[in-house]
Amino acid sequence: MKVNVIVTLKEGVLDPQGKAIQQTLNGMSFSEVKEVRQGKYFDIEVNIEDEKKAKAKVEEMCKKLLANLVIEDYKIL
Amino acid sequence: MKVNVIVTLKEGVLDPQGKAIQQTLNGMSFSEVKEVRQGKYFDIEVNIEDEKKAKAKVEEMCKKLLANLVIEDYKIL
After folding, report:
1. Judged by CB atoms within 8 Å, which residues 30-59 of B form the interface with A?
2. If I label B76, which of A38, A64, B1, B27 is the partner at 20 to 30 A Cα–Cα?
3. Confidence bin at A2 (pLDDT 50/70/90)
4. A30: left (phi > 0), else alpha (psi -120 to 50), else beta?
5. Residue B15 · residue B37 · CB < 8 Å
6. Dihedral over alpha carbons B74, B15, A18, A39 (to 10 degrees)
7. Which value does ipTM take for this structure?
8. Which domains does chain B possess?
């Protein structure tokens, strides 16, 4: 089955990439944009059919590789 | 309000970054990983309180800047 994960910077961690996107949008007449934060999205296909087991396995991957827990949070969808 | 967007590569478009993550996970004893596709996630705060209007505005941003519609799809959450 497929498991989706979003990895985002923790609140308070500077996000220069998001800031650049926000400024570009503001300059493109999207003046209503107040803040943009960018994160990563992973679509992971695993050979496990049990949803609970698959998600537990993906959580382990987040902790070991996909997210840097010092500055990032992950959310399994 | 905040609007979240996921931008992913269209099916069939090669994703070398996702492939590298998949191979790394396989090498880390996560042999159950069959495929990984990576995408981008945006958390956009706009000065619009009406949900429908905010999402319509963000859709416009996706078309004009955030996604390359030739190779990418976007999904507004």
Report:
1. 30, 32-48, 57
2. A64
3. very high
4. beta
5. yes
6. 80
7. 0.92
8. 2-76 (3.30.1280.10)
